[in-house]
Design goal:
Keywords: Protein transport, Transport. Belongs to the VPS25 family. GO terms for molecular function: protein homodimerization activity; structural molecule activity. This is Vacuolar protein-sorting-associated protein 25. By secondary structure, this protein is of the alpha+beta class. The protein folds into two domains: 84 residues, "Winged helix" DNA-binding domain. Chain C. Domain 1 (Arc Repressor Mutant, subunit A, Orthogonal Bundle), CATH 1.10.10.570; 64 residues, Winged helix-like DNA-binding domain superfamily/Winged helix DNA-binding domain (Arc Repressor Mutant, subunit A), CATH 1.10.10.10. The chain has six helices and eight strands; from the N terminus they run αβαββαββαβααββ. α1 packs across α3 and α4 crosses α6. It is elongated. The model has no long low-confidence stretch (mean pLDDT 90).
Length: 161
């Protein structure tokens, strides 16, 4: 599991298993970004990438390959886009479209249509407490709001019915 498999079909299966593990871990820990160098160093705090009992750790290169497979499926995105350095990635345990849907439903349920709602209110506000998007990464929030086609200004965003 910690060494990249050479056979293509075995590798695809391994990458699929890692994708599931990474997304479950990110959701549980409420992680939106992963810095690959940090994640693959000893005692990094990312316990999913290391098994001390068998003295194995996922290499930086193997994690890069796994994230690249996730990018192809839309469950991750390289920081800086496809031409980025491939050392940091956004993890989409919810895609921007899914985040947009969660935020849109929350806006409707809380009666905030046709008014300006700040980024802070969406990501950290009292009404947002308990929502899955509470403490959402600013860039992931931007991507979700772009999906919604919101009317942005320096104060926040306005949601139209």
């Amino acid at each position: 599991m910690y060494v990249r498999q050479v056979t293509e079909s075995t590798w695809k299966s391994q990458a699929f298993e890692w994708e599931s593990i990474i997304l479950s871990y990110a959701r549980h820990k409420h992680l939106f970004r992963l810095e690959l160098h940090n994640a693959t160093t000893a005692n990094s705090g990312y316990d999913i990438f290391e098994n001390k009992k068998i003295n194995r750790r996922l290499s930086f290169e193997a994690l890069q390959d796994i994230i690249e497979e996730m990018v192809k499926k839309g469950t991750a995105e390289w920081e800086g886009g496809p031409k980025g350095s491939k050392t940091e990635a956004y993890l989409y345990w919810h895609t921007p479209e899914e985040w947009a849907n969660l935020i849109w439903n929350w806006i409707n349920e809380t009666g905030q249509n046709d008014q300006i709602v700040t980024y802070y209110e969406i990501a950290h506000g009292e009404l947002a407490e308990g929502q899955e998007f509470y403490d959402i990464d600013h860039n992931v929030l931007d991507k979700a709001l772009n999906v919604l086609g919101t009317d942005e200004d320096s104060m926040g965003v306005k949601f139209f019915q």
